[in-house]
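$ run holo --ligand "4'-deoxy-4'-aminopyridoxal-5'-phosphate" --emit tokens
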Amino acid sequence: MSLKIWINNKLVDEKDAVISVFDHGLLYGDGVFEGIRVYNGKIFKEQEHLVRLYESADAIRLQIALNIEEMSKAMNETVKANGIKQGYIRLIITRGIGTLGLDPFICKDASIIIIADNVQLYPKELYDKGLKVISSSVIRNHPMSLSPQIKSLNYLNNIMAKIEATDSGMLEAIMYNHEGYVAEATGDNIFIVKNGTIFTPPVSSGSLNGITRATVIELSDELGYDVVEQNLTRFDLYTADEVFLTGTAAEVIGIVEIDGRKIGDGAPGEITKELKDQFFKYASGE
Ligand code: PMP
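-- output --
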């Protein structure tokens, strides 16, 4: 079935949703984006995603012609037009059409693209079995280079780590920061469980301020777990009782092996499973 794509203020057929080869989003990865889930026809954490999008845009001095309310309307229209009840929205803002030079301010209007579709990041069975991952040798972007908190169209840093994972026969890689502390996975935040306490690296360690991460911290709190945001080392991962990832596309998924070391008993742990179930319940409005 052909999708209806929102592009530059209207919905068009997928085949007509095209952008210029002079768009700086294509030429330079100059732009920002969001990935957002739809559960039971409702956009999950819509406001939080929109705020993060506009903050990313501000950080790169990208002006978006629509305000947050107008963007929300456009997203909801796109979801409706595609009949999406359970799915995923990709919201993309590119710098727009410019010249072959870098100058972003030559580009007149940012392009707005909204895609509403389905997504399956990891195979379904791995939510029960857990993921095996490697530590990447690719260091997460230094915050003084390109802040990992900007959800930019430049994902090459993460893609380099993903290539390393794929080359090792794995689906995912853990990225460390310039000081050797754990940052995040290529498209997800990371948590560990040790002796009943939940730990996650602070956002300042070089990760995106994940919206699923924040939700899982809140749910953990409600369930009575202590959540500690502190720097984690590779040793902490290797010796954790449980490790799991969180992200919009990934949701909550257990990790059962890192660099050939088995985590816990080699299956997703009890707290991981509890949080995964709670997350699904919460997201689907139960
Ligand atoms: N880190 C990176 C690099 C990501 O791309 C994502 C996915 N947006 C996340 C973490 C998870 O963030 P969220 O829970 O907001 O999707």
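-- notes --
The chain has a mean pLDDT of 97.
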